[in-house]
Amino acid sequence: MLEIDRVSKRFGAKTALDGVSFTAAPGELFGFVGSNGAGKTTTMRIALGVLAADSGEVRFAGRPVTHDTRAQIGYMPEERGLYPKMKVLDQLVYLAELHGLSTNDAHRAAELWIARLGLGPRRKDDVQKLSLGNQQRVQLAAALVHDPALLVLDEPFSGLDPLAVDVLSGVLREKAATGVPVVFSSHQLDLVERLCDRIGIIRDGRMVAVGTVDELTRDAGRRLVVTAPSANPGWATTVPGARVLENHGPTTVLELSPSADDQAVLAAALATGPVTEFSHRRRTLTDLFRDSVATPGAPR
């Protein structure tokens, strides 16, 4: 298990992290999301030992992270950290050897990930000659080539086409299935929601929500989508406990308080004429993210 325990960090007068805590269990995909500048990359760099925390602790397998521990971590930075004039295969072999693999094992591992990530035709190319998407694949291979016990990936899906996204998603699921904790950040919230077992949302250096999407939205107001072609605007405002969130022509999206009666909404809609849609809509990660980031005192 990776444990981020009350980690704080300041840069001059700016507080970048303020008591950040979360865990990533063995075999768990943990999505770490937040706006630009919220503290995601700083947290990851502290987990890797690239930065030192002012207070708090990072532990892996119950022990503080040391130099030996870091050799077991696969890290993918948001900014590409590759040697641009080095060939893909040579670079992956070199990086695997830095993590302690023998030359033969390093070659086998490099060839495996080159094939797995669809880089075979580019294995002898200089990295600088690759497209941005293929550079991203090489960066991912570099994080995986030494068979890490923990994966920490900063925006791994950035710049990837849909096919590459599917390949990477499959790789992350496979690694998690072997018991590896996987922590990754991404602005593609639909992808995070689909892939991750749990999610952490950070705002201004503080964790404002941690849990599964279902856990984080369990107590949120229910949402209804109602399409009433003959209704006048504002038809739902008289229903007790109903709040209009969106209007799109004849379609209205409502949020209901826990005490509100959805049948009262249906009756009010039918009173205006035919109703062609009446459905409950589950709150999405995008909804949760928007509310957590924009609303002070959002649920933790």
TrEMBL record:
Keywords: Antibiotic resistance, ATP-binding, Nucleotide-binding, Transport
Source organism superkingdom: Bacteria
Main location: membrane
PROSITE patterns: ABC_TRANSPORTER_1 (PS00211), ABC_TRANSPORTER_2 (PS50893)
Ranges where the ABC transporter domain occurs: 2-229
UniProt entry tagged with the keyword Transport: yes
Protein's membrane topology: Peripheral membrane protein
InterPro entries assigned: AAA+_ATPase, ABC_transporter-like_ATP-bd, ABC_transporter-like_CS, ABC_transporter_ATP-binding, DrrA1/2-like_C, P-loop_NTPase
Protein name: ABC transporter ATP-binding protein
Organism: Amycolatopsis silviterrae
